[in-house]
Design goal:
Elements: H1 2-23, H2 25-51, H3 63-99, H4 111-116, E1 137-138, E2 145-146, E3 150-151, E4 158-159, H5 161-173, H6 190-193, H7 199-210, E5 215-216, E6 225-228, E7 235-238, E8 244-246
Antiparallel strand pairs: 1-2, 3-4, 5-6, 6-7, 7-8
Transmembrane segments: 6-25, 32-51, 71-91
Keywords: Membrane, Transmembrane, Transmembrane helix
Protein name: Aste57867_12496 protein
Length: 261
């Protein structure tokens, strides 16, 4: 406990001494500057008779020797003044730096000052007028400009909704079990047809597909559907190419003769 008190006392004394020295430092520097000039004054008083030449020297002294001695003393005096001048100049600079008034830097703005300033509001955004135009397409069936078309997945033959539904209705009326594209005869997906067929048309198509009397046209380029003739039992007529075929031999219809011939 006593050691701690002693250390605190020594520290306080050191701080006090440092404050006193710092407070009287300009005065101490002034005294040192004055003290540095004392050797120069003493040197001048002692050796001034020798530095003035042969007039003040005794008569028995040779003038040439007196001039050499005076020159050597002059060099020594110049060196002493130089040695004294450098520390004196450093002390004067230090003294001036300590005695100059200290200007504190500008204080930072406080939070209250920053909050009191009103920020300039941003201008409202400029509303852009919509210049979007509706795209139109040309129906390949009727040639009219429409906003939407239904294209074929195979040949890209596109027709409007009205023409597409009219084509499907015509195919159902011809008793075609597989509805196909109007251009390339590619089969249309059944799940896609449900959105464009009425309930009556869907029922008719299902009945035609279930009928076993309907066959495919033997002509590979037609791919139409054959329907039963009401007059002759074995006669089938293609609903697409209107060709007549024999239901027994799948050849062009022959009224007379057997299918073997």
């Amino acid at each position: 406990m006593l050691m701690t008190i002693a250390m605190v006392a020594v520290g306080a004394a050191a701080v006090c001494c440092a404050l006193v020295v710092f407070a009287f430092l300009p005065t101490i520097l002034s005294i040192l500057v004055f003290a540095m000039q004392v050797p120069v004054l003493v040197f001048g008083l002692i050796f001034s008779p020798f530095l003035q030449g042969g007039n003040s020297m005794p008569e028995h002294v040779v003038p040439g020797e007196c001039g050499a001695v005076g020159a050597s003393f002059g060099v020594i005096g110049w060196l002493i003044e130089l040695i004294v001048f450098l520390p004196r100049f450093a002390l004067q600079v230090l003294y001036m730096s300590l005695t100059l008034p200290f200007s504190s830097p500008a204080a930072w703005p406080t939070a209250e000052a920053l909050s009191s300033t009103k920020a300039t509001p941003f201008p409202p955004p400029i509303e852009k007028t919509s210049t979007k135009t509706t795209s139109t397409f040309e129906c390949m069936e009727c040639g009219q400009a429409v906003t939407s078309t239904i294209p074929c997945t195979k040949c890209a033959y596109a027709s409007c909704v009205s023409c597409y539904r009219a084509h499907l209705a015509s195919s159902i009326e011809r008793h075609e079990t597989t509805l196909r594209c109007a251009r390339c005869a590619a089969a249309i997906d059944t799940s896609f047809l449900q959105a464009h067929l009425s309930p009556n048309q869907q029922a008719t198509l299902a009945a035609v597909q279930a009928c076993d009397r309907v066959m495919t046209c033997p002509d590979s380029t037609c791919l139409g559907r054959l329907r039963l003739s009401s007059l002759i039992k074995r006669k089938r007529v293609c609903t697409r190419c209107a060709a007549a075929w024999c239901a027994d031999c799948r050849r062009p219809f022959h009224l007379f003769g057997s299918c073997v011939e």
